[in-house]
Amino acid sequence: MRQPRTCTRGALDIRKKALSPDHPSLAYTLKHLAMLYKRRGKLEKAVPLYELSLEIREKSFGPKHPSVATALVNLAVIYCQLKKHGDALPLYERALKVYEDSLGRSHPRVGETLKNLAVLSYEEGDFEKAAELYKRAMEIKEAEPSLVCGNALSRHSSSGDTFSLRGPAPLPHVPR
Questions:
Q1: Which residues on neighbouring strands pair with residue 148, listed in sequence order?
Q2: Virtual CA dihedral for 26, 49, 117, 156, nearest 10 degrees?
Q3: Is the pLDDT of residue 161 over 60?
Q4: Residues of the chain with pLDDT > 70: what percent?
């Protein structure tokens, strides 16, 4: 049986031959190969693949597309893992702007990116900024409708940790 990396490399080679150099499917394959390197701890090998994936997405979708923001976050995460915070910060900030502009300021991806920025700020020693970013991320998270056993969490809990397992609330009786 072939190794996953070999299969992904093979898929990349096939797509490079069959598709244009800026085809979105090529970016997708590059991202998955980068993820394999990342999982194996070969972060330096993942970086150029994430960079090329980002470049292709920008050409394919334009710089303000949510797919581009996702590629920016992927690259920023790797830079953070490599302790290259100065390289990661502008990528996170750009991704945040793209997500906010394209998906709205309360979208879960905005919250995730804010959380990543909070962690980065914390690691850089800017605790006040980290707290501010994390607070905003948590406000977005708490506003998300979550389902547990088919029931939405209570909106009355500021932490979202109280919910009912009795089933859905009965509908109010409306006289006819």
A1: 151
A2: 40
A3: no
A4: 70
Instruction: Identify the pLDDT of residue 126.
Output: 96
**What's 173's DSSP letter?**
P
8 A C-beta contact, residue 98 and residue 92: no
pLDDT above 80 (res 166): no
Mean pLDDT for the chain overall: 80
pLDDT in tens, 66-107: 999 999 999 999 999 999 999 999 999 999 999 999 999 999
In terms of C-beta density within 10 A (0-12 exposed, 13-18 middle, 19 or more buried), how is residue 34 classed? buried
For tokens 């590629």, the residue is: 71
CA–CA gap between residue 78 and residue 130 (Å, rounded) = 20
Task: Give the domains, in start order, of the chain with CATH numbers.
Answer: 1-82 (1.25.40.10), 104-168 (1.25.40)
Residue 30, helix vs strand vs coil:
helix
Residue 95 CA to residue 93 CA, distance in Å, equals 5
What DSSP element (H or E) covers 103?
Answer: helix 85-103
List all residues 6 or more positions away from 31 whose beta carbon is below 8 Å from its beta carbon: 49, 50, 53, 71, 74
Report the C-alpha gap between 68 and 118 in whole angstroms. Answer: 21
